[in-house]
Specification:
This protein has helices at about 10-25, 65-75, 135-140, 145-160, 165-175, 175-190, 200-205, 215-225, 250-265, 310-320, 325-330, 380-385, 405-410, 415-425, 455-465, 475-480, 485-500, 505-510, 535-539; strands at about 5-10, 25-35, 45, 50-55, 85-90, 95, 110-115, 120, 125-130, 245, 270, 275-280, 285-290, 300, 305-310, 335-345, 365, 375-380, 395-400, 435-450, 470. It is an alpha/beta fold. It folds into three domains: about 5-40 and about 255-335 and about 450-539, FAD/NAD(P)-binding domain (3-Layer(bba) Sandwich); about 135-220, no CATH class; about 335-450, Polyamine Oxidase, Chain A, domain 2. The chain has a seven-stranded mixed sheet. A five-stranded parallel sheet has the order 11-2-1-15-21, with helices on one face. Strands 12-13-14 form a three-stranded antiparallel sheet, with no helix packed on it. Strand 3 (about 45) and strand 4 form a beta hairpin. Helix 10 runs antiparallel to helix 11 (about 325-330) and helix 11 packs across helix 15. The protein is globular and about 70 Å long. It starts with a strand and ends with a helix. About 45% of the residues are buried.
Length: about 550
């Protein structure tokens, strides 16, 4: 008889685990998710034909396994002229890559190759992101300010902060105090809602390790040299990638296709369901109590393994540990919530006759202006033209970072849409009279935060690891700011444990902690598990 694995959450981690269980084990996955659609924060929201990507998802990874897994689900579209006949570099090997055609006429289940451009909007001017020491940057700042930034950077290189314990230390060591205060401090505090000196340096190490003024200069020099096209781009820091894969209809298309394959292979996915309780027998979870939020009915589901992507706070609350310290730490783990105002406009400001976009390549723009609360602006036309219902209009995502229940979160949709449009008009990017339509999406617990009780999370991890058939995976499941490929690798590592019959979960927790992983590592060998250093295992 087949064993049963209950999976809490139908995001990238949960769905990757479900499909890998079906491919590699005797477990039947039962996936439960509170949402009405799959994908978690990687879903695509469809509002009247305009599709919204929540947070922006570039499909790029230094992991061969992830890149191949994605392309097996959604192949790269034939006819992408810029990559026809390209040679990929994987782990020092040269491989010819041939784009795979869609499976039939009119079948749009494919990935596109998209150019990457992110910029900073500051002082009502555009700056390259990552920052480049070029004529435009110096012109925007002025020669005097440019010189002061350079001197501040030189001073920081000679006077490194040690130990590097806070995010402020991390930024200043890599960019200098003046550049940190100009381009990083206000925006980062807008995102997290607390001062940088209260945030762990671990956040920077996981999200932007390898990026510095020095790496930006090296990248700029490399741009001047001839080079072959390389879709994998493994020698490039993640924040400097210039092209990436992207599903034709947004990231949710990937996870909707994965969900369909899970069901076709015998797994089950239950949307609109919440796990409200867990049954235990010693050091094993024996079942879950699941509520249908539509009917209120609660039923018990027996399981042989439990894979959790639910927030650590909720998971520990349902496990009810005897150790009061574990309960206290889990309850004190903070999150940052997220809202997007999706608006459709006739055109953006600064466009000429017959044009809707003044900058046709930006995927998103970081809004550094201190007089508005918007954090980032997405231009969905530039992620994929197929996200926009009417190509003669512009579809925008105005992103705000907030706390559930605060003044932003508590606005009605109508109030929030008007507020967001007025902010974008205030900084000169649109005329609010050009707004045609809009919708609001709220995402609670979108960002696990690295302050509050986070420094003591190791005690929670030790407790969770002591439950033999429990596997915490994914962004919220691990309380770690993972990208979707990190979440997928954590899911793979969990399935590896089940395949091997191992109770050692260190490979799961090692994902997105190693110094060379994802940003600088030359890929992960498909034939073995992640290597982990003693320091990573002890973290």
């Amino acid at each position: 008889m087949r064993k049963t694995a209950v999976i809490a959450g139908a995001g990238p981690a949960g769905l990757t685990a479900a499909l890998e269980l079906l491919r590699r084990t005797e477990y039947k996955p039962l996936v439960f998710d509170l949402d009405s659609q799959v994908g978690g924060i990687s879903k695509t929201v469809n509002y009247r034909g305009n599709r919204m990507d929540l947070g922006g998802h570039r499909f790029f990874s230094k992991s061969d396994w992830v890149m191949n897994w994605w392309q097996e689900i959604l192949p790269v579209a034939a006819g992408e002229a810029e990559i026809d006949g390209v040679t990929l570099a994987y782990q020092g090997q040269r491989r010819e890559f041939t784009p795979v055609a869609a499976s039939g006429p009119g079948d749009g289940r494919v990935m596109l190759v998209r150019p990457r451009l992110s910029r900073i909007y500051y002082r009502r001017r555009f700056f390259d992101y990552p920052l480049k020491l070029n004529a435009q940057t110096i012109g925007n700042l002025g020669l005097l300010e440019g010189g002061l930034l350079g001197a501040s950077y030189a001073w920081s290189r000679l006077n490194q902060r040690n130990p590097e314990s806070t995010l402020e230390d991390f930024f200043i060591n890599r960019f200098g105090d003046r550049l940190y205060r100009t381009f990083f401090k206000d925006y980062t505090e807008k995102v997290w809602g607390v001062p940088c000196e209260r945030i762990s340096a671990e956040w920077g190490a996981q999200r932007i390790k390898g990026l510095s003024v020095t790496s930006a200069l090296k990248h700029a020099l490399g741009q001047m040299l001839p080079r072959k096209q390389d879709l994998a781009q493994k020698s490039v820091e993640t924040s400097l990638i210039e092209r990436f894969l992207y599903p034709r209809l947004g990231p949710g298309q990937m996870w909707e296709e994965v969900a369909a394959r899970v069901v076709a292979a015998g797994g089950e996915i239950f949307l609109g369901h919440r796990i409200v309780g867990l049954d235990r027998d010693g050091d094993r979870i024996t079942g879950a109590k699941v509520m249908d939020v539509g009917t209120g009915e609660v039923r018990s589901v027996a399981c042989d393994a439990f894979l959790s992507t639910m927030p650590v706070r909720e998971l520990v609350g349902q496990l009810r540990p005897e150790d009061a310290r574990v309960r206290e730490i889990a309850h004190g783990l903070p999150y940052r919530d997220f809202m997007t105002a999706g608006i459709v406009v006739r055109r953006m400001a600064g466009t000429g006759a017959g044009s809707t976009l003044p900058f046709p390549a930006d995927n998103w723009i970081y809004i550094q202006e201190p007089d508005v609360r918007i954090g980032r602006l997405q231009i969905f036309n530039n992620w994929s033209p197929h996200l926009v219902a009417d190509p003669a209009t512009v579809s925008l995502g105005l992103e705000y970072f907030c706390n559930e229940g605060d003044d932003l979160w508590s606005m009605t949709d109508t109030q929030f849409l008007a507020f967001a449009a007025q902010e974008l008009e205030k900084i000169g990017l649109i005329d609010s009279r050009d707004v045609l339509d809009g919708t609001v999406v709220r995402v609670p617990k979108a960002y696990p935060a690295y302050f509050g009780e986070y420094p003591r999370i190791g005690q929670v991890r030790s407790y969770l690891d002591g439950i033999r058939n429990l596997y915490a995976i994914g962004r919220n499941g691990m309380h770690r700011y993972n990208n979707q490929d990190h979440s997928m690798l954590a899911a793979k590592a969990a399935v590896d444990c089940l395949v091997d019959g191992s109770s050692d979960k260190s490979d799961i927790w090692a994902v997105n902690t190693e110094e060379d992983y994802h940003e600088t590592r030359q890929g992960i060998d498909d034939s073995r598990r992640l290597e982990t250093s003693p320091a990573a295992r002890a973290a």
